[in-house]
Fold this sequence. Notes:
- This protein has a single domain (6-235), classed as Alpha-Beta Barrel (TIM Barrel).
- The chain is built from eleven helices and eight strands.
- 42% of the residues are buried.
- 45% of the residues lie in helices and 15% in strands.
- The chain has an eight-stranded parallel beta barrel, surrounded by six helices.
- The site of orotidine-5'-monophosphate has 18 residues, from strand 8 and helix 10.
Amino acid sequence: MADDRLIVALDVSTMEQMKDIVDTLGDAVSFYKVGMELFYAAGEDTVAYLRDCGKSVFLDLKLHDIPNTVAQGVKSLTRLGANLITIHGQGGAVMLKAAADAAREAAEELGVERPKLLAITVLTSFDDTTWSGIGGQLPIADQVRRLALLAKDAGVDGVVASPLEAKLIREACGDDFLIVTPGIRPTFAVANDQKRIATPSSALRDGASRLVIGRPITKADNPREAVRMILEEMEAVKP
Length: 239
Ligand SMILES: O=C(O)c1cc(=O)[nH]c(=O)n1[C@@H]1O[C@H](COP(=O)(O)O)[C@@H](O)[C@H]1O
């Protein structure tokens, strides 16, 4: 059976490819992520399709702009009925609060369930070298903690971070804060462009609420078997 702590990233560019993955994985997966590749190519029908299939949806468009633009963007996306939406923590306190207020107000106006907002901290593809290359001053872990606290204070529901930072975020932000971790690599998978990675069980043990996993499943020779192995590993760490 599905474990809704697992979110499979649908990083494909057509509805057909998306449907193929959803069909193949069947009841084993209940939560999917639609990111920019799929959304820009196939639009909001992707979200509607997943909802019609009874799946939960993480709409990952990483909004990052001035506060008013992000607030209006969040308002437009709230209409689609996704469960989770991403905005960039580096947009700062005013932008984060504007987004949180917009989600609440739009959901009330539309009479739909409020999407939970997640702030992106430091992308899992950064390591110390690429981080200092963009002028990052604090160590990555300190920057992640800082953005997590900023997001929490602004009324944002949680963050996206590497599993390597899950523990420090849990300690800093408490039990109710959502910690969603991509950069998950089961021992059978390769890292690809991910730098700050951990296994599913290690991420959960360190306090991750949900895991985002894409290529180790969708590019596997046998995606169903990849999911089975991941769920078995997750099962050992109870929610
Ligand atoms: O926001 C995200 O989901 C995200 C944030 C981050 O820091 N790192 C990261 O990999 N992601 C997303 O998580 C997914 C990871 O996919 P795989 O590397 O194929 O497992 C991709 O869709 C990324 O866009």
